[in-house]
Amino acid sequence: MLVSWPVMEDETTGAGIAEDVKAKFVDLVKTSFLCRVPYPDPDAPASKIPSLILPDDVMYKIPEVKLYLLKQKLAAEASEEPPAKKVKMEDPQGDKQPDEKEYWRVNIDRFDQHLRDQLIVEALSKRMGAKAGSVVRTMLRLSETRCNPKDAFSAPVSRSEIHQFLKQETTVSPQELDSYLSLVADDALGLVRRTDERGGMYSVNLELALRLLAEGVLASIVQDRFGAKSCRIFSHTVPL
């Protein structure tokens, strides 16, 4: 069920329209920030406790939406009529959306993945510079819908994919890209690795990145509370 919320009015274009609501919804589904809620298995035997299913090919399937019904709903929500009359305004012909019994929820794992990637990029940018951070950000964005948020490594992406994506946001030559890829892949921390013998595919070690970020936060807490000497002792106790 595609739920519409009141859309903020734009001073230049007037009230938000149904097409905008649908487009934003589709963007959120395509980037996995929204996903379907499991539904009762139609083939399961009748039971007081239904068996819920959610096939992979259905989880992010874009629903069919009748835009004219969505427009009526938005118009009714924006009106000052009594609630009973608003219901009639929303659906004067008794027509219903094809996805009326389909429900959606926020994909918490996807938001966790997004925030994790931001922290990794910020940390690498501080260590190696903004352009190196942009390269790693591109690697993570290209792989974000190709792997499970809980995977230890990001999905491998090719040098050509990274270059094509970066060209849309900034001017970077192939030579510059190669230098930054070498910089991040040869760094002693080992956060980025080459995944093929020819060196044209790259992946981010997400498990290692999260461990290093956690260690950095703990070290900062120890230093603030107990001083620099205690922080050095703490650093030596952390396993390599």
Automatic annotation (TrEMBL):
GO terms for molecular function: single-stranded DNA binding. Transmembrane segments: none annotated. It comes from the Eukaryota. Residues 80-101 are annotated as: Disordered. Coiled coil: none annotated. InterPro entries: RNA_pol_III_Rpc82_C, RPC3, WH-like_DNA-bd_sf. Residues 60-210 form the RNA polymerase III Rpc82 C -terminal domain. Keywords: DNA-directed RNA polymerase, Nucleus, Transcription. Component of the RNA polymerase III (Pol III) complex consisting of 17 subunits. Belongs to the eukaryotic RPC3/POLR3C RNA polymerase subunit family. DNA-dependent RNA polymerase catalyzes the transcription of DNA into RNA using the four ribonucleoside triphosphates as substrates. Specific core component of RNA polymerase III which synthesizes small RNAs, such as 5S rRNA and tRNAs. This is DNA-directed RNA polymerase III subunit RPC3. It comes from Rhipicephalus sanguineus. The lineage of its organism: Eukaryota, Metazoa, Ecdysozoa, Arthropoda, Chelicerata.
